[in-house]
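Researcher: Structure prediction, please.
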Amino acid sequence: MSAQVLDRMAGIVGARNIIAEPDAMLPYLKEWRDLFRGQATAVVRPGSTEEVAAIVRLAAETGTTLVPQGGNTGLVGGQIPVAEGREIILSLQRLDKVRAVDAEGDTMIVEAGVTLQRAQEAAEAAGRLFPLSLASEGTCTIGGNLSTNAGGTAVIAYGNARELCMGLEVVLADGRIWNGLRQLRKDNTGYDLKNLFIGAEGTLGVITAAVLKLFPLPAARATAFLALPGPAEALALLNAAKAGAGGTLTTFELMPRIGLDFVLRHAAGTRDPLSESSPWYVLMEVSAQSAAGLDDAVESFLGEALENGLITDAVLAGSLEQRKDFWKLREMLSEVQRFEGGSIKHDISVPLHATPDFLARAIATVEAMIPGCRAVAFGHLGDGNIHFNVSQPIGADKEAFLARWEEVNHAVHAIVTEMHGSISAEHGIGRLKRYLLPGVKDPVELALMKTLKATLDPQGILNPGAVL
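Model: Predicted structure follows.
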């Protein structure tokens, strides 16, 4: 890239918002698991939608490729440029304004660089709930959440990011701005364009702002940590809880004992909530608009579950601090795995009824492939999304173990495909899984995706190499 192009970009965003020094660019060039490291010509940090549009217009004029990036918390490498270093990272972090909160209409307009936690806090300050919840919410941004159609721990009650978005503002690949920031719950005036860009990982346009759905703040929450024999009992408990737990079931997270052991071993300030060990656990949360009787209703439900053999032990959080302790056990599951050596990751979903069968078959498959490996299967059982991770055998060579990544992926994904599931439930495709799409997508569907890419980004300047 010529220095002239960077000078013109500096004229748009200001010289201090062009980062070209290698050391200063490093935080933008690798993701936290260190699976992906890239190179770039520079990082450009626009501060408004108009500046984003001007940068994209200049990129279209000069054939410059752009990689949009939010909080850099993605897990499939879609926010990391390719290694050759010809691309510009388009950081959206300076687009950080909460433009409006409409408590009466239960909507909020925020810019793409607003962190998820800040969006939650802005909603709460207005007496409302924005229910999207992820372990990385202090760092991840709304633009990234929408670009990957993030899921999280409350999908069972509120849906993915797609269901929580009413409208978008998007800069197209030619630099035009589409203002689709509609706050309408009913609008049948043609194609629903926003859903083209949600989940597209920045390959079709650059999301700069969004209208988000808000909900009433729950008056009360009951949070329980449960021990149970296995996934089949967890599924039966889930189905019973949807109707009989005394409120709205908002969280139902499945965890294996080995994952809990990892957290207790490596995360400071954690302790086992129950006195007896169990092969599986569930973190369950129920919300209600009235505090009266919620704990009693949940306790009654759990008592019946205990009598029916669905659970073997339970503890209900008696304070906010105890609730936080329960959640820490779940939220640290991903982070602590790195202390146990190499980990081969899968983010899959299967139909709910197939979850116990998937877990039994997948665990048996990887243990037969790599004796001594440790399956750490956890996640959002309420929506059939399992993070099926495989930690290396104790004392094994990490690099040799990780060299079998594709082999293990192939075996696990074969089971997922047979069960009519998805190889990417909530993390996206990025660069990690793009080569897998031809094997799992209907050919017509894949052709339509390529047609959309060619139509909306004919020069291929937006996030080249991601998704397709």
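Model: The chain has four domains: 3-91, 98-216, 220-334, 341-428.
Researcher: Thanks, that helps.
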